[in-house]
Amino acid sequence: MTATPTTPDPTMEAIGHAVTEGRAGDTASARRKLLGLWSAIGVTGDPLHRCTLAHYLADLHEDPAQALAWDIRALDAADALTDQRVQRHHAGLHIAGFYPSLHLNLADNYRRLGSFEAATDHIDAATRHAPDLPQDSYGDLLRTAIREVAEAITRRDTARRSSAPGTSSGDTTVQTRSS
Question: pLDDT of 40-60, one tens digit each?
Answer without folding.
Answer: 999 999 999 999 999 999 999
